[in-house]
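Blinded run. Sample ID left blank on purpose so nobody reads anything into the name before looking at the predicted structure. Input follows.
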Amino acid sequence: MAQPPVPLKDMKLMDVKLGQLPTWLAMRDFTPSGILGALRRGYDRYYNKYINVKKGGLGGISMVLAGYVVVSYIWSYSHLKHDRHRKYH
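Blinded prediction complete.
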């Protein structure tokens, strides 16, 4: 038997076709509580996949560290760019 089609509201982003994207985005919850809930679900998914495992490794923590390095570089890029053109002599 074929599975019944999933309603657009319950579809994941990867399953949405390009023509359905505006309608799917309009159905999302963009209130502060909805955004906070999405961040919480993302954190829980990351924690359960990479941190809360029986045989853990450095993968999950190294991704957090790499993300921190990238974000801190982006935040300080204007200062680093300004210092790059100075002459020290």
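Unblinding after everyone has recorded impressions. DSSP finds four helices and no strands in the chain.
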